[in-house]
Design goal:
mainly beta, four-stranded mixed β-sheet, elongated, four-stranded antiparallel β-sheet, 5 helices, single chain, 43 strands
């Protein structure tokens, strides 16, 4: 389109490339006052201004008028198309009463356009599909000939080639735009459907790894064009094996666990790998001292360290000459003048050893760890005392000397001690010393009054279980003074029933309230966070010091009531059904026994494989009555 104007006068024309338009400015000598050009002006000259890239201009004289002006007819030819508009100007110069003045006529040139329509204007595709777009120009004929180019708003969803072929890449939406060489456009909306997974597999279906080591699993999701190949990893038992978001499996405890990868795209497919976590084999053992000088009657503690750090720290101790020096659990007792070697030997099957030279000189009396020989405190020296002392010397399990507040029982040659707990009133649950570690399971804190009762000085040992039941179900064998484990709540009831037949007593599991009262130290409580101390390493075998195994009972310090291992070593089952918090409580709490029914039973105290938080005296746990674990045992009540 072409137009020109002088004081409001205009004219239009439509042009294709190669087409021309001829125009002649208004003769200056005519009377056209409405155009601002008065009669009598003397014309000097006129000039034309235009963009030679897009136009060619031919000037001629208009023979049809009688004016004296030359080159007053212009023929404009369009050479190239362009967007928008462009101007052509004609400037007149005049002479009026000796003054040179001018006037300008401006022409606007706009190219004709070619429109485009796409077919279809929208389409739905599956990943990997292709479809070619169709299009139509309007008008179909033009100069220059119409052309189209194609672009995609999101190449990750759909691509398009020079010929309008669309390829679906991934789930989502994208806009395909066709643009003509006349700068007109048309669009097609593309929706790509997601492709669900049809299968998932792992690079391994079973692995075995030592504690502390890590191995990577790789999940493969098919088909290859699946929209979402991400998976969620899970472990059936994070106390044995953990797994992170990248498929890295880490062994944290001895046993078996199942690692599962599940698709995230809604297909709900899964694949599993069985993981067997084993103890790390020892590569070396060392003692903290290689030579020790002692006097008769003196004792010194030796410490053995087994490497690497993930290996079992359990060792046996022996003396090359017990008449010179005896060793019990790493403590050396000088007996008589002379020299001997104290040897620590690994118990994991590697049989590695480390020695310390002991040199004993004259001194005081030789201490006897067994005291008077009446180990169980029953007033006589019997075969039971001898058995206990032998176990002490061979396995390092120190005999527990009963106090006046205890009573010792013997079953089939195995002794155990019950501690009398004087009744009283205490605050149960999230008390102030528990701080921010307290959970909602421990709330609200509340007053409880208990009658006097008795509770086991130690957890039930493998020796006692074997004496009553005739079998040892424990996983961590090798020392019968270790707590029994791998027993269900129902197994515990059967054990107690048989024990009561053998003793004529009425042993039972403690209630949850009795357990916490005893763990806190009863009416002798010092307000400790753990059972007997706020320094957990003094009283507790837990994940940071246990080397992933149980330990002989009473090898840590006792609490205020001379009770051992109330924190750590193994969880201890209680009689109560479990409820998620104490909100069910109402009224005065005197000898409470928990909810009337449930599906889970309470367990308390934490274990060798649990962090410090879960070994607190107020921390609560639970488990199905039928399940057996190598970190759960029991303690008797009476």
């Amino acid at each position: 389109m072409l137009c020109y104007s002088i004081n409001g006068f205009s004219e239009t024309a439509n042009l294709w490339v190669g087409e021309s338009w001829t125009f002649s400015p208004v003769p200056l000598h005519t009377t056209r006052w409405d155009q601002g050009i008065p009669i009598g002006y003397n014309h000097l000259d006129l000039t034309w201004s235009y963009d030679q890239t897009y136009f060619s201009l031919t000037l001629t004289d208009n023979d049809d008028d009688d004016s004296t002006e030359k080159n007053n007819v212009a023929t404009v030819t369009l050479k190239h198309i362009f967007p928008g508009e462009k101007m052509i100007t004609c400037t007149y110069y005049y002479n009026y009463m000796g003054n040179k003045i001018y006037n300008t006529i401006t022409y606007y040139v706009v190219c004709n356009k070619v429109g485009i329509t796409l077919y279809p204007t929208s389409m739905t595709m599956d990943i990997g599909d292709t479809q070619t777009l169709q299009w139509q120009f309007s008008p179909a004929q033009s100069n220059p000939a119409p052309q189209a180019s194609f672009t995609s708003s999101d190449h990750s969803v759909a691509t398009v080639d020079l010929y309008g072929k669309v390829t679906a890449i991934s789930a989502g939406t994208a806009t395909i735009t066709a643009t003509t060489n006349y700068w007109t456009t048309a669009t097609c909306q593309v929706t790509v459907n997601p492709t669900l997974a049809t299968s998932i597999s792992l690079n391994q279906t079973s692995i075995s790894l030592p504690i502390g080591s890590t191995q990577t699993l790789i999940a493969t999701v098919l088909p290859s064009v699946a929209s979402d190949k991400t998976v969620t990893w899970s472990s059936s038992d994070e106390n044995i094996a953990t797994i992170d978001a990248n498929g890295n499996v880490t062994g944290v405890g001895i046993g078996n666990a199942t690692i599962t990868a599940t698709t995230n795209d809604g297909s709900n497919l899964s694949a599993s790998c069985s993981v067997n976590v084993t103890q790390v084999s020892a590569t070396s053992i060392r003692l903290d001292q290689s030579e020790v000088e002692m006097t008769v009657g003196q004792d010194v503690k030796l410490t053995a360290t087994v490497l690497p750090s993930g290996s079992s720290q359990r060792v046996t101790w022996s003396s090359s000459d017990p008449s010179v020096a005896k060793v019990v659990g790493g403590t050396v007792y000088a007996q008589d003048m002379g020299e001997c070697l104290i040897t620590a030997r690994t118990l994991d099957g590697t049989n590695l050893t480390a020695d310390c030279l002991i040199m004993v000189y004259p001194g005081g009396e030789t201490p006897s760890p067994a005291g008077s020989g009446d180990v169980n405190g029953d007033g006589i020296v019997s075969i039971t005392d001898v058995t206990s002392l032998i176990d002490y010397l061979l396995n390092g399990t120190a005999p527990i000397t009963p106090t006046g507040n205890t009573k010792t029982y013997t079953v089939n040659g195995v002794t155990f001690t019950m501690v009398n707990v004087e009744g009283g009133t205490f605050t149960m649950g999230a008390t102030p010393e528990q701080g921010d570690d307290a959970t909602n399971f421990e709330k609200p804190a509340h007053q409880v009054t208990l009658s006097s009762f008795s509770i086991g000085q130690t957890e039930v040992t493998q020796a006692l279980w074997l004496a009553v039941m005739g079998t040892n179900p424990s996983e961590f064998t090798g020392n019968l003074q270790n707590p029994v484990e791998m027993v269900s709540w129902d197994d515990c009831q059967e054990f107690i029933t048989r024990l009561n037949v053998l003793t004529g007593k009425s042993f039972r599991l403690p209630t949850e309230a009795e357990w916490e009262y005893a763990a806190r130290g009863g009416n002798k409580s010092q307000g400790n966070k753990y059972a007997g101390s706020s320094n957990i390493d003094e009283v507790c075998w837990y994940t940071d010091n246990s080397d992933a195994t149980t330990h002989a009972v009473a090898t840590k310090s006792p609490n205020e009531l001379e009770l051992y291992d109330m924190s750590g070593n193994v969880y201890e089952r209680c009689q109560d059904w479990y409820y998620e918090d104490y909100s069910f409580i109402s009224g005065e709490q005197i000898n409470p026994t928990g909810p009337d029914s449930g599906t889970l039973r309470v367990m308390r105290g934490g274990s060798y494989m649990i962090d410090a938080n879960r070994c607190r005296v107020s921390r609560r746990g639970y488990i199905t009555p039928t399940l057996k674990r190598n970190y759960i045992g029991l303690r008797l009540a009476l």
